[in-house]
Design brief:
- The protein is mainly α.
- Helix content is about 60%, strand content about 10%.
- It is built from eight helices and three strands, in the order βαβαβαααααα.
- Strands 1-2-3 form a three-stranded mixed sheet, sandwiched between helices.
Length: about 180
């Protein structure tokens, strides 16, 4: 048996760009490689059983905390007088934005938070991340903060993408005058 976690959302799956993160026996991993090649662009053996799942939590830590950092930066830019549309456009073309976040900025630009990776799943992963951190006695203040904002947005809009934390931060910052309906934007 192997644990094989998938990294990548719906668009990545549609484009054949998924990454598989496996934990288990190396011989079994090599035997499964032809199957992995059909469903994923990249696949990695991380170690023994449970390693694939552990790596998925590491990846999603960066995904969730990164989105929260982006949300805060965007709000700072808007409060400093930058045009939201131009801010998101330029930010998405900088080296500091991970490829997984570029599409999130494009969606946010038109206030489209339709779920590719729903808030509820990011929330579940934050809970697993923080549980693993507690078991290892690791302090993760940025992750705790991102989890809180994610939980707050989840309580308001449970079927949206995890990138909706951007909208939550805009609302908290008093930028709620933005038309949040993607149909009329």
């Amino acid at each position: 048996m192997m644990d094989v976690a998938i990294s990548g959302s719906t668009p990545a799956a549609q484009e054949g760009m998924l990454t598989l993160l496996a934990g288990g026996n190396e011989e079994l991993f090599r035997a499964a490689a032809p199957i992995f090649q059909v469903v994923a662009k990249r696949y990695f053996l991380l170690g023994g059983s449970g390693s694939g799942t552990a790596m998925k939590l590491v990846v999603n830590t960066l995904l969730g905390v990164g989105m929260q950092a982006i949300a805060e930066a965007v709000v700072l830019g808007q409060k400093a007088g930058l045009d939201r549309e131009r801010l998101l456009e330029v930010l998405s073309q900088t080296a500091v934005i991970a490829p997984a976040h570029v599409g999130k900025l494009a969606g946010a630009a038109i206030n489209d938070y339709s779920p590719q990776f729903p808030l509820r799943l990011m929330n579940k992963d934050f809970q697993l991340i923080l549980k693993a951190a507690a078991q290892e006695n690791i302090f993760m203040p940025a992750t705790v903060a991102a989890f809180r904002v994610n939980s707050d947005e989840l309580a308001h809009n449970d079927e949206e993408d995890f990138s909706a934390v951007l909208r939550r931060m805009e609302e908290v910052a008093g930028l709620a005058a933005i038309d949040l309906d993607p149909v009329t934007s």
